[in-house]
Amino acid sequence: MVRSDALENRARILAAAREAFAEDGDTSMNRVAQRAGVGAGTLYRNFPTREALLLAVYQDEVERITGAVPDLLARMTPLEALGHWTAGLVEAMRRKHGLGDALSAGAHQAITEQSYGPVIAAITELLDAGKTDGTIRHDADPGDFLQFTGALWRTPPGPGDRAPRMLALILDGLRSQP
Hints:
The chain is mainly alpha-helical. The protein has nine helices and no strands. The chain has helices at residues 4-23, 29-36, 40-46, 50-67, 69-75, 78-98, 105-133, 142-150, 163-174.
C-alpha cells in the first residue's frame, strides 16, 4: 500500500511539473523538485527520467480531460459540452506539442497509443448524448471528429487564434437538421 504522503508528493510533483513545463518546456528536474517542495531523491524515486515525468504529466492531463465528460453533460447540452470539452482538449494538445522536442519518437508513439482509446471514448459519449436527444446528427463519427479537431491544436494560439471559429464550424456541421 502506498503511503498518503507519497501520494501527496507525487500529486505535488505533477502539478508543479505541469506549471513549469507550461512556462518553459526546458525546465530542469531540479526546478520541478523545488517548485513541488520535494527533494531531488523524492522526484527521481517517482519519475526516474525527465521523459517519464513528461509522460506522466501528459497522461494525468488526458485523464482529467476525459474524466470531465459526465460533469459537462450534467451542466450543458451535448453540443455545448462537446464544444467546451474540445476547447480543453485543444489547449492540452497545444501543450503536448510544445513539449514535443523533449520526448523521443517512441515516447510520442506510446502516449498517442495510450490516449487514443480514452479520448475516442469521451468523444463517443458526447456524440451519443447528442444523438439521443436529437441535437447531433446520427452519422457523426468520433474518429472523424478527432481528425477534424487535429487541425485546431495546430493553429497558433494568441491574437487571431482561428481555433474557436474553426470549432464553431465543426460543431455547426454536427447539428441535426430539422
